[in-house]
Amino acid sequence: GLPQGAIPLSLFSFNAGIEVGQLAFIALALFPVALASSSESWSRPFRIASAYVIGSLAFYWVLERALA
After folding, report:
1. pTM for the model
2. Most C-beta atoms within 10 A of its C-beta, which of 7, 36, 54, 65?
């Protein structure tokens, strides 16, 4: 439903919005990492817990796709 002349600008704006959203998500995800790394007592347990969470999600997605 867009005029032919508005399609390139619309696609560019949509893509720019997606990229800004991804950067905001990464910034929010790295904020707890920065807080944990500044405190030595939280650094090691946080890294271990993060590794288990990431590994568990990866394993779930592998199973989900393998069984589909």
Report:
1. 0.53
2. 36
The Cα 10–Cα 17 span in angstroms is 11
Q: Which two tokens stand for residue 45?
A: 């347990």
Pairwise CA distance, residues 62 & 66, whole Å: 6
The amino acid at residue 56 is S
- Beta carbons within 10 angstroms of residue 16's beta carbon: 10
H or E stretch including 3? none
Tokens 């796709």, located at residue: 65
The two counts, helices (H) then strands (E), for the chain are 2, 0
39-56 per-position pLDDT tens digit = 777 677 878 888 999 999
Residue 38's pLDDT band (cuts 50, 70, 90) = confident
